[in-house]
Amino acid sequence: MTTIKQIAAHAGVSAATVSRVLNNDSTLSVSEETRLRIFSIAEELAYKPKRLRRLKQEESMSRREIGLLMWSTLEDEAHDPYFSSIRKGIEKRCEECGLTISKIMRGNGDTEWGPVHGLDGLIVVGSIDHRDVLSLYGDPKRIVFVNHVHKLEAFDTVKADFEGAVKESLRHLAGMGHKRIAYMGGKERVHRLTLTSALDSEHDDDHGSPRDSRREAYRQIMEESGLYQPLFNREAEWSSAGGYSGMIALLEETGENRPTACLLGSDPMAVGALRALHEQGISVPEDMSLIGFDDIEIASYLTPPLTTNRVYTEQMGRTAVQLLLERLEGREAAVHVGVNTSFMIRESCGDKRVSLEQNGGERK
């Protein structure tokens, strides 16, 4: 590819002069002979201006068609905006760079799959078994997984830094004086397209059982600090109803030894947990502090407003498209991107340190 510097070297002038001549700069004082020589050399070296190359690249990209495969249903998206926000990020970035999403598929059985091998790439949102995805679209270099529970070393992947968010949340709670800290999250599943049931921790695949990375980070940090209590490590459904029933069960099973703080794996779960605490006469944050995940729109309008970890879901979708673009341009090695989160401090954690009495009179 010929450059302006190469033309300048052949013409015996500066690169700036070549650039201004080729862009028909009328303010440039240069002889007609020099001007004609520059144009002649540019033609001889088959120089193509950047804007022309860019137009050709955009035209080529506009002919690219990709597919979007999601496990979440439209109903799921209505109840929890996490995956819909990722999808919107994908759609916006595709529109910006001229990519066409010609096929949107959902793994819930409502989709007519049809032929997908003619697509130029595939973005998979959610934990769908990679073997099933490969049976659907056989080129691993043009598949990007977003928010998959496994590492999937052979594929491009985009994930939120949940482990870092848990560490920040627990550091904040510890700084407030909390010792009895619970975690409540759902079960991670790797879904199958070819089976009616999902793979979960009881149905292993060849990468090992899927684990909630938030739960694992919580367990490790609490064990290292000598504060881990198995009874405080709770599992519930990823929903407001799950958070509600899970909090009721936690209160019943822990009694007077209930935690003084609880980290929840999603904001919808935190919404349900907050209602359960209100109904039980347990004040937030005076009796129990709450922290969520996602920073959905309603989080800042709850009573009290919810401290949470903002997950940049739209950015995750945009990043997935960028990775696919790089693959279409020839990148060979798989890339794994972790998108940072932000800790949003609001009133559900309070601003006062927890008393010794609330911590059972213990100093640790």
Write a concise synopsis of the structure shown.
By secondary structure, the protein is of the alpha/beta class.
Describe this structure in words.
InterPro entries: HTH_LacI, LacI/GalR-like_sensor, Lambda_DNA-bd_dom_sf, Peripla_BP_I. This is Transcriptional regulator. The structure is a single chain. This protein has 364 residues and is an alpha/beta fold. It folds into 3 domains: 4-47, 434 Repressor (Amino-terminal Domain), CATH 1.10.260; 64-160 and 314-338, 3-Layer(aba) Sandwich (Rossmann fold), CATH 3.40.50.2300; 162-311 and 343-349, Response regulator (Rossmann fold, 3-Layer(aba) Sandwich). The protein has 12 helices and 12 strands. 39% of the residues are buried.
Helix content: 25-40%
Order of strands across the biggest sheet?
2-1-3-4-5-11
Q: What is the terminal separation in angstroms?
A: 67 Å
Structural class: alpha/beta
Q: What's the average pLDDT?
A: 85
The overall number of domains is: 3
CATH superfamily of the largest domain, please?
Response regulator
| Residue fraction in strands | 15-25%
The helix-strand sequence is HHHHEHHEEHEEHEHEHEHEEHEE
CATH topology of the largest domain: Rossmann fold
